[in-house]
């Protein structure tokens, strides 16, 4: 096995530090966690955190990026093109439900922190949300252009669908049993007349 380069070692260490940080954020909340606590939990000197991330805000940004569903959803997003809307939306919803099952603790933490009076993460979460909405909106626009769906603002449709799923996931309720109903209800309002 080839030893890792210094850069690869640094990337592995940064990813470990971000995972430790996310764990502490889940346990205690973003604002209550200090750089010293992250360093102690990770077994490193605090200076290493500042070396890699610059500041607590830099560490928060890295943690939000790591918690982003963007990569987890990327596979399904790439597979949507050309698929009928009912199939594509169900596939997306199933993947989102899986992300919530796997990382629900982190998602709940992000929600809690976004509601804080002086949230340190609002901008990062909004950027993540816009990225996911943009990818999905392009898919809906494709289905509109194909004549399958009526002309409408896809972001409205997507916000309704995603919000319904997130509410269930954040409140620790099962999501998958509701997906067909959510997708059917949304499609009944935007499908073209046959």
Question: Can you offer a commentary on this structure?
Answer:
75% of the residues lie in helices and 0% in strands. With 194 residues, it is mostly helical. Helix 5 (70-80) packs antiparallel against helix 6 (85-114), helix 5 (70-80) runs parallel beside helix 7 (122-145) and helix 8 (154-170) runs antiparallel to helix 9. The chain is elongated, with a radius of gyration of 19 Å. The model has no long low-confidence stretch (mean pLDDT 88).
Task: Supply the key terms.
single chain, 194 residues, mainly alpha, 75% helix, elongated
How far the N terminus sits from the C terminus, by CA atoms, comes to: 59 Å
Specify the structural class. Answer: mainly alpha
| Total E-strand runs | 0
* Mean pLDDT metric: 88
What Rg is obtained from the alpha carbons, in whole angstroms?
A: 19 Å
Largest sheet: none
Categorize the overall geometry: elongated
pLDDT < 50 runs, ≥5 residues: none
- Portion in strands: under 5%
Q: Helix fraction? A: over 70%
């Amino acid at each position: 096995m080839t030893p890792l380069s210094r850069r690869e070692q640094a990337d592995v260490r940064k990813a470990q530090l971000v995972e430790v940080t996310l764990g502490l954020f889940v346990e205690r909340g973003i604002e209550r966690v200090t750089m010293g606590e992250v360093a102690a939990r990770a077994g490193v000197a605090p200076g290493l955190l500042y070396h890699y991330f610059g500041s607590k805000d830099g560490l928060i940004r890295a943690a939000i990026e790591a918690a982003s569903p963007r990569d987890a959803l990327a596979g399904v997003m790439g597979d949507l093109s050309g698929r009928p809307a009912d199939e594509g939306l169900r596939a997306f919803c199933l993947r989102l439900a899986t992300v919530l099952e796997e990382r629900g603790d982190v998602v709940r933490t992000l929600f809690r922190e976004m509601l804080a009076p002086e949230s340190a993460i609002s901008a990062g979460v909004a950027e993540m949300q816009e990225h996911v909405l943009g990818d999905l909106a392009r898919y809906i626009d494709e289905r509109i252009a194909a004549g399958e769906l009526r002309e409408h603002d896809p972001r409205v449709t997507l916000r309704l669908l995603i919000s319904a799923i997130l509410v269930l996931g954040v409140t620790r309720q099962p999501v998958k049993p509701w997906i067909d109903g959510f997708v059917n209800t949304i499609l009944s309002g935007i499908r073209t007349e046959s």
